[in-house]
Amino acid sequence: LLCVSYFGLTHLNTWHDEIFSMWISTLPFDQFWVAVIQDVHPPLYYLIYKIFINIFELFNITNLTFIGKCVSLMPIYLLMALSLIKIRKNFGMLTAGLFIFCLVTMPMFIQYALEVRMYSWSIFFVTTSFIFIYEIIERNSYKNWIILTLLTICSFYTHYFSALSSIILYLIFLAYILKDKKELLKTWSMSVAAVILAYLPWIPIAYNQFKTGEQGFWIPAINMDTVVGYIYSVFCPILEPKVIGILFLIVIVVLIIYSIRHNGNNFALMGILSFILVPLIGICVSYLFFPIFHKRYLLPLLGTFWLSISILISSLYVNKKLFTIFLVIILIIGALGVFSSVNNEQNDFNDTIHKNETLQSVVGSNNIVIFDNDVLYLDFGTYFLKNNSHYLFKNDVGQNIGNLLKNSTIQSKIDNGSKVYYIDCTSKGDNSNYLECVDSSIKLNKIYSPYPKEYIREFDIYEVQTANIS
Predict the structure, then answer these.
(1) Please, which residues bridge with residue 463 across strands?
(2) Which helix H or strand E contains 186, and what residues bound it?
(3) What is the DSSP secondary-structure string of 361-411?
(4) Helices (H) then strands (E): counts for the chain
């Protein structure tokens, strides 16, 4: 984890969603809340990130990518500390060690631990909730219930699939209570009521965000290939050959079946069941209504899943041969996962450097850059080409460019050597505005077209001819 952290913090890469996190978290508070409400995620992660930006600035650290990756790594270190305290106490050092190993080596973990998004925090809140459910089962106390309730509220305010994960955990916990510990029902009800009350202010906003997604979202339609892709994401440590992921899945299924047949740890089986239910619900909603589920939404319960698997493997320790087989497989998959993740981070870093160098060589600094797409406007305007003046026109592009060029302030910049560039988004679903510019007598000279899918949007860069503008 230390090596990966060092590598990630010295090879800073980024993409659109991370740039969005940086942009929204640096807004003044009044603009921040407006932007958060218009987003499709709850606000807690952005607020955490914003707080740490201010803390890091006290030490003259202002690189938003570096700060964001530090903030995303924090939950992994917190879970490691919690493993050595709570998991070691409840299940032994072997389980704690296995869980820590899985936490930092299994597929998807490293990628999202280094991504400037809310996923590592959702893993922390949900996994810690699961740990405190066990604490309540073993040592019922108001303190443990309060911690569980606060963690659940944080989970609800971090991501909607984190909230769904917490709901599933509570429902499975309820089933356990009704079967084995009815005396916990009253406190469980009080905890649920507290979560609902704490979330009431956000429910109208969540409803509006959900309606926005219903009108059209970026997630592709769900099909069998998509579902198989979810499985590969969790169990395949390298892209090819995918048979490794299939074999690992078979091994995990064998472990679960063996544990069930030999009266394995019921708490661990609760964690595995919760992990299975969330994607099933997400897939059903995506199929019946509109696409809403993505592989990254498996993450909130991924910590719970690997903790459960660690408990089941540890319980096999009395059977040395069987235990050794499962342990060796976990070690091999983990090693492959680390090498693959570091390689992917290196590729993403190279990609970020390439984009930055290319755009700097084409557009440079202290110029005027015009966009017709808000995604490119955000990515280039706040990150790759931020040392320029930026303008966004989504309608009447040709007319607006013409009016802008006649502006006295713009004319003054042009007279002082600034160039004018127009970035025309040509992605599917985004109509090119080139002809509209030509019809408005805007003279354009194409100077750059990236390879397809090199950026999150396809586009052409034109230099606007500014001579003899009246």
Answers:
(1) 421, 445
(2) helix 185-199
(3) HHT-SSSEEEES-HHHHHHIIIIIT-SSEEEE--SSHHHHHHHHHT-HHHH
(4) 22, 5
Confidence of residue 17 (pLDDT cuts 50, 70, 90): very high
Residue 161, CB-side half-sphere exposure with 13 Å CA sphere: 26
Q: How many CA atoms lie within 13 A of 270 on its CB side?
A: 21
For the question of whether the overall pTM of this predicted structure is more than 0.90, the answer is: yes
Q: What is the pLDDT of residues 208-258, one digit of tens each?
A: 888 776 665 667 778 888 888 888 899 999 877 788 999 999 999 999 999
| pLDDT (tens digit per residue) in 171-195 | 999 999 999 999 999 999 999 999 9
Which candidate, 383, 380, 384, places its Cα nearest to that of 392?
A: 380
**What is the three-class DSSP state of 114?**
coil
DSSP three-state, residue 418: coil
Pairwise CA distance, residues 313 & 327, whole Å: 7
Closest by CA to 126, choosing from 92, 84, 170, 96, is 170
pLDDT score of 91:
96
Which of these, 304, 270, 290, lies nearest to 83 by C-alpha position? 304
* Alpha carbons 102 and 234: distance in angstroms, whole number: 12
pLDDT digits (tens, 9 = 90+) for 372-412: 999 999 999 999 999 999 999 998 999 999 999 999 999 99
Query: Which of 433, 350, 363 has its CA nearest to residue 12?
Result: 350
